[in-house]
Here is the input.
Amino acid sequence: MRRFCWKKLLLPAALLLSGGAAAWAVNILTEGVDAGRTGWVQGDKSLTVQNVKNMKLLWKVQLDSKPREMHNLFPPLLVENVETPAGKKNIAVVAGVLDELYGLDANTGNTIWHMTYKTDYQPPKTSATLCPGGQTAVPVIVPGEKSGDWAVWAIGWDGYLRKMNVADGKELQAPEKFIPANGKPYALNYLNGVIYTSTAQGCGGLTNSTFAYDTKTRIATAFIPSGGGLWGRRGVGLSPDGESYMGTGDGVWDVENGHLGNGIIGVKLDKSGELQLNDFFGPKNAEYMFKRDLDVNVTPVSVDWKGHKLLIGTSKECRLWLLDRDNFGGDDHRTPLAQTPLLCNLNANFAEEGVWGAISTYLDAKGDLYVVVPFFGPANPKYIGATHYAPAPKMGGGGVTTLKVTETGGKLGFTPVWTSEDIDHPDEAVIVNGVIFVNGTGEDARQQWDDNYWDKTPEGLPKGPWSQQSNTRIHYSRHAVLVALDAATGKMLWSSGNQIASWNHFAGITAANGRVYIPSYDGMMYCFGVAK
Amino acid sequence: MKTAQRGTLTLIAALTLTPVIFAQRNGPDWNTAGFDVQRSHWMKADKDVNVTSMSKPGYQLVWKQKVDGVKVGLSEPIMVGTFIGWKGFKDLVLFQGGDGDLYVYDSDLGVPYFDKRFNATAPKACPISSIGAPGRPSPLKPAAGMMRPLAAPYHSVIGKPGEGIPGGMNPPRTGFGFGQQQTAVPGLNQGGRAATPIYTITADGTLHIMAHGTGNEYEKPTPFVPAGSQISDISSVDKIVYVATLPGCGASPNTLFAMDRNDPANPTIKQWKPESGDILGAPAFSTEGNLYVTTTKQLIALDPKSLSSKVLATSQAGFASTPMIFTAADKKEYVSAGTTDGKLMLMDAGTGATVATAGEEQKLQFTPTALATWEDGSTRYVIVADKTKQKAPVVAYKLSDGKLQMAWTSTDLEAPGSPLILNGVLFVLATGEQRGSADPAARAKGKPAVLYAYDAKSGKALWNSGTAIASPVTTSGIATGSGMIYLATADNTIYAFGFPQERQ
Here is the structure.
């Protein structure tokens, strides 16, 4: 396979779109928009601060994907102008938890193709909220051998890696053994012929690890940090030279004895193709974070800015760390270039507060670097920026806050800019042309419930086909909301309101080419946008 | 890589199949007065506090919090170590007010978690001289720390072409698997996480039972002791809640009460009064479940369910302390107690026969009213303090060849309180209270308290809190959890000492 450059893929190709949307087309080939997981769609001018107020539901389609525990559909990947048997199509590739893959017409939502992975694997009958089984990783799309060809790589429930043609969904090669079955891999990443992922929760008995698979040599490798689950939503982030980054979940930070929990690791393939530890960072309060189950649970963002090779991470605790990718945390591996106070989660809550989705970064027109942080629960009132809106992020809701990365006298830092109004459990932001799109999941994020009183009749826990936690959370979940915020001010420009009937969990959004896609738990894919 | 060396990685890789590495997340808990129902006041292990670490600077006041609205004073605290609460993983310190109200703080952060203010009153106010600690269910044998197995140290694996990730990367998992859920306890903490009751007794004599994670009263409050009683520390063993009423207050002073809650809907209450003398405080339990009470005259063993009693020993001078029980190197259990003539008595827990005594030969003007014990290897130490004198030392005895021998004596402390031992370090409060009165208000006219730490083996002074505490301690004692020491002063301020750790 030829080498390719992500930046080239993200460069807009001038296309003539009909109607009022801008004439640009961008491919979204991986979760988090790019390999560094910035969540920033560069070069797309189709959505603007001015036109998003006119966004509307362009289409919605009920897919036959069935849920498993709290999972169902994942946000689509987008490839424009794919040669298909029916002519050129803009294709949205959508993964479903039950080993399904859909190729939808991005313009209409019509199904172009639909496939279910073939396997001899006999999945276990039991599951749990944290270990739903099935396909849990957003696939990744890479250019094919021939110009205009595209291949989608995906991991099935059986742990096998599959390669399908984006044009028709047909398998391009026999499935390859990658990770053990029944794990919980996260969104796939790709660079120079190597596919990366990580797993969490010990699902299926897998040791929590970060993985790589070389599509040329067919060699699989794993690095086990001996921490907690590596469950950053966007999977591992990558530097341009192939270093893979991930938070190490809820685990012991004890470097002397080889345990790198509640930290961030950087691993890289050595000459033999084996992942090796390259660097590591542990917050100074890692022990406290472990005690309070405040996992480092967010995909670190790899971004270059003004000559700095930066890595930005956060956690359920809700504070940002700014790291030098060439020197994590200094000599003691515990001193970041900068860190914020708590942005939220003053209650040190392990479930309903903190950062649960993904952080994003973008550069504004002046070249200033901003970090966008969706979070659950109330914001820290002492660190919400100069601008903030009512109703403020609240318990049972959440918000988005942005911070500007600053450099003063050679020292890097964060400055809070604004905090949004309340949004129902926002977990992912995607930035397009000065607009921040946010997925308010509407999910019931509780993992514990209040104790009963002797003199109040206990309300029975909801029944359902899944584990009790899932049944309860499904019962009490609300509906998702897609909102558009002005990146400069945080002002809400548009909201989907009540148009989305169901909620989502660990799903997300995709935005490009005048459209924003959001799946929901009931198997519905929504497409809002400004395009006709 | 900057500091992790390749050689280290090679060694680590060689150890990947060695699964026996454990990390202590927390515990065991100080969940009753004196840590365990033997009243040992001994927390065996801690990862931060030891004689070496306490010999260096660093131990300090971590937080303090004034508690508003306390009417009577605060007790010795108890602890709830890390648990999954409905708003996060929490670690709590709990104080009972003299009227039975409960004040619960996040023990790491020093912020209020919940409080329970019952506004209970008694027809006749009791001039309370001490405040019992709240209770939690306690095992007869103190639990080991909550351990969970760690995986092998960090390492890499690589497969052959087409093989995928090779086998062997998955070490056997032990314990409770991720994603699995326990069976929910009806009426308590829906969602299935473990929850335990907390017991307080209010001024009207009612037993209140709350879930530790929320403070919600999940069982019906039940009349237990007469209103206006002065109660001892509360104990709970095998679903029976015990408390003693102390002399001087209420309709039934000097009585041991036991509420059997094996059938929570139909609790039954038994009570027992001593034939001779006044009950000195909370009962202690042997690891076999026998219950022991001291009065000013006798050591009595009781059946924990029927409360049928047997006098095991009589002191001519009179007992001065509640009983403390330990298992010595010979595997036998002994009951120790102080007497008003300054002796420390060591008695066979089965027969009450005196095994050893100490104190007389020291010619100390000393009344061993507060006891603690610990073991260094196979050497058993008994630590005693005098809670009656304005100035008195802490005295350590060593049990050797069946005899109690003085090991060391501290300098005089200003109104010493009950000692505790944490991983070989003895902590004790110079409470600073003005002794000579039963009235806490009068005792509060003393000096600010000072917390001291000693090498429990040698008696070497290691550390003290200096001027960090602003008031005397009159009704509270000290307790420990996660390397911290907690106490409350007469002005109702909670203090937490420990090694500073980055938290929020």
User: Anything to note?
Assistant: Chain B has one domain: 24-147+195-498. The CA atoms of residues 46 and 423 of chain B lie 6 Å apart.
